[in-house]
């Protein structure tokens, strides 16, 4: 039934392998497991699916071994976990001396004659799973239903609605056994002469439960009414109010778009003055350079705190100082057990959640770190504190390192060589910063000498086209044709509102090709991830225009919500695409990073869930507030107590 069982060292040496009769070779699936799970810090779950196979694995951190079993995923093999445990124990015990005495050489030269032992263990495991007797159906007499009295049933039906609720509740507690079944009959029979103290107590408990339940329903109903009723009125009253900027142009005429002809005319928007210094931001930067996210590491300070004051756990709530302080005593020679690590991992998990990492991912991460460290023998001068911390840091950096690197400038140059524009599509929900960051990316591209055509494909949100037009004007003012040999570096392609976005994008791309633009940036309308018609429209836009890069724009501010959006956008693109191999999201623009202080968990959650690289990070509202992701910066912020 098993396709294969293989034992190899973490260094990559296959020590022993069992190959099933008709199973596929273990190489490809095991390589996939190593690439996608073991090297990617996704080891929280000890199971992995590769094509038609399920792989289960176990790590031995003491001897640096990996045990992997593979079987067809349609099979439900209940004995696999036991088998892998048994084989692990037996193999380790049998060759313990070789591992301990000869080390790596032992592995290289060792002959591991394990076939007979393995076949015995496999037989035992298979037998033990068969031995388990099938569950026999209960007879009617044994069932709880048989213990119900006819009287009880009749009275249940005849009761008033309020009492019915009581009965329903008792029904719910049926699982508790006969006592629970007896309770409704007592209560519903209306037998008020309950004399035994125990019975009285039970009735009181019931009543308390009943009261709580009623209270819960009452509150729930109230909350429901509250949240439902005032909303439509409030919305009606509120309407859409224009935003008045403190520092911007407060002239109402500027914001009045009612008469502006949005038919592609460049002169439709009134000219406005703007403070170029304010729009630019940092003036001392090197033009065209995409800086890494800056960070200030307080690792050393924290380390010192732990060393100097080992007996007192840090008082900071949720701080890593306290967490790592707990393992201070375990130094050298002891191999780490799950028991040693559990309290630390618990704190570690809470710390990550407090930093906005999705709870589920925090659990998986800690699980992965635990699996990596369990059984590991500490070096003489290594504290458990530093080992655990390092393992977590390594895991986090690993997650943030993209599996596929996106180098936009190189790809644009490549497209240039092929005499075609490089197309980037931006998508995301409303207000996350699509247009703003599109403008920042335009600015960065222009500074690198590339001309940009902005396609205004948000044909839905009022003001979206004007917003891009303003950006275009400003970018042109900052980079006038005079300083680029008479070449217009940025232009807007727009067709007003209410038109088909996919069509406009297509026209813009062919316009860019004819006019020799290097890059086309396609702005799309914001849409909720659950809105099927709008997601279909986006999938169509992407399928029809086949952009080189599809960027999902998500704000770091909303944390886990951004993860949900990203996952659902990706899924929706797959579901609503007509193509056989649907085009999915290629990368992430993480915006509003300047607003989250050190709660940087969204970056981890987003990359962990989708394995998509964070290509750009938005760090403010000026054109220079664009950065590339620096994994170390994010991890440092995440580890900060
Ligand atoms: P869109 O609806 O997705 O196109 O969002 P907008 O581009 O209109 O941006 C919405 C708001 O977010 C605007 O007020 C932007 O100035 C602001 N914004 C965008 N990116 C950032 C950022 O990186 N940091 C900060 N602090 N604000 C941003």
UniProtKB/TrEMBL annotation:
It holds the Pfam family SRP-alpha_N. It is found in: Endoplasmic reticulum membrane. GO terms for cellular component: signal recognition particle receptor complex. One of its GO terms (molecular function) is GTP binding. Keywords: Endoplasmic reticulum, GTP-binding, Membrane, Nucleotide-binding, Receptor. Residues 613-626 form the SRP54-type proteins GTP-binding domain. Residues 154-205, 220-250 are annotated as: Disordered. Coiled coil: none annotated. InterPro entries: AAA+_ATPase, Longin-like_dom_sf, P-loop_NTPase, Sig_recog_particle_rcpt_asu_N, Signal_recog_particl_SRP54_hlx, SRP/SRP_N, SRP54_GTPase_dom, SRP54_N_sf. Residues 154-164, 220-237 have a biased composition (Basic and acidic residues). The keyword GTP-binding applies. GO terms for biological process: intracellular protein transport; SRP-dependent cotranslational protein targeting to membrane. Belongs to the GTP-binding SRP family. This is SRPRA protein. It comes from Calcarius ornatus (Chestnut-collared longspur). The gene is Srpra.
């Amino acid at each position: 039934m098993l396709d294969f069982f293989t034992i190899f060292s973490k260094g990559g040496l296959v020590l022993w392998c069992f190959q099933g009769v008709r199973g596929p070779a273990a190489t490809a699936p095991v390589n996939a497991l190593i690439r996608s799970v073991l090297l990617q810090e996704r080891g929280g779950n000890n199971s992995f699916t590769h094509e038609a196979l399920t792989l289960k694995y176990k790590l031995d951190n003491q001897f640096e071994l990996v045990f992997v079993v593979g079987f067809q995923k349609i099979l439900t093999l209940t004995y696999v976990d036991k088998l892998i445990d048994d084989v692990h124990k037996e193999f380790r015990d049998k060759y313990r001396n070789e591992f301990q005495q000869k080390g790596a050489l032992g592995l290289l030269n060792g002959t591991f004659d394990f076939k007979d032992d393995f076949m015995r263990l496999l037989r035992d495991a298979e037998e033990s799973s068969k031995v388990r007797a099938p569950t026999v159906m209960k007879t009617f007499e044994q069932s709880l239903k048989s213990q119900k009295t006819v009287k009880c049933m009749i009275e249940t039906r005849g009761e008033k609605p309020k009492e019915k609720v009581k009965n329903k509740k008792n029904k719910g507690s049926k699982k508790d056994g006969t006592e629970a079944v007896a309770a409704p009959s007592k209560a519903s029979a209306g037998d008020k002469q309950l004399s035994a103290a125990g019975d009285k107590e039970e009735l009181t408990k019931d009543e308390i439960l009943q009261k709580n339940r009623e209270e819960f329903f009452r509150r729930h109903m109230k909350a429901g009414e509250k949240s439902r009723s005032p909303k439509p009125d409030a919305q009606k009253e509120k309407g859409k109010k224009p935003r008045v900027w403190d520092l911007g142009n407060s002239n109402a005429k500027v914001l009045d778009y009612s008469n502006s002809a949005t038919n592609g005319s460049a002169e439709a928007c009134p000219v406005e003055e703007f403070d170029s210094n304010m729009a630019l931001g940092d003036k001392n930067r090197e033009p065209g350079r995409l800086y890494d996210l800056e960070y200030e590491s307080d690792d050393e300070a924290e380390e010192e705190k732990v060393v100097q004051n080992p007996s007192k756990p840090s008082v900071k709530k949720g701080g890593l100082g306290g967490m790592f302080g707990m393992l201070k005593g375990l130094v050298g020679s002891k191999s780490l057990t799950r028991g040693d690590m559990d309290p630390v991992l618990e704190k570690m998990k809470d710390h990550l959640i407090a930093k906005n990492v999705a709870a589920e991912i925090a659990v998986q991460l800690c699980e992965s770190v635990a699996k990596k460290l369990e059984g590991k023998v500490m070096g003489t001068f290594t504290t458990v504190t530093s080992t655990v911390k390092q393992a977590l840091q390594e895991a986090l950096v690993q997650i943030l390192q993209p599996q596929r690197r996106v180098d936009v400038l190189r790809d644009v140059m490549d497209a240039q060589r092929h005499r075609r524009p490089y197309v980037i599509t931006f998508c995301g929900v409303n207000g996350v910063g699509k247009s703003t960051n599109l403008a920042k990316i335009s600015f960065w591209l222009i500074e690198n000498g590339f001309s940009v055509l902005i396609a205004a494909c948000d044909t839905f949100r009022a003001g979206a086209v004007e917003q891009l037009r303003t950006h275009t004007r400003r970018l042109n003012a900052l980079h006038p044709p005079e300083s680029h040999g008479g070449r217009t570096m940025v232009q807007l392609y727009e067709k007003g509102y209410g038109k088909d976005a996919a069509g406009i994008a297509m026209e813009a791309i062919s316009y860019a090709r004819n006019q020799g633009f290097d890059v086309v940036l396609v702005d799309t309308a914001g849409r909720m991830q659950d809105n099927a018609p709008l997601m279909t429209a986006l999938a169509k836009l992407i399928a029809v225009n086949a952009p080189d890069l599809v960027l999902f724009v998500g704000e770091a501010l909303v944390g886990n919500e951004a993860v949900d959006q990203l996952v659902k956008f990706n899924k929706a693109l797959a579901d609503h695409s007509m193509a056989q191999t649907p085009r999915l999201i290629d990368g992430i623009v993480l915006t509003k990073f300047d607003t989250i202080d050190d709660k940087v968990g969204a970056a981890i959650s987003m990359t962990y869930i989708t394995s998509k690289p964070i290509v750009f990070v938005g760090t403010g509202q000026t054109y220079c507030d664009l950065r590339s992701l620096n994994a170390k910066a994010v991890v440092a912020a995440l580890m900060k107590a």
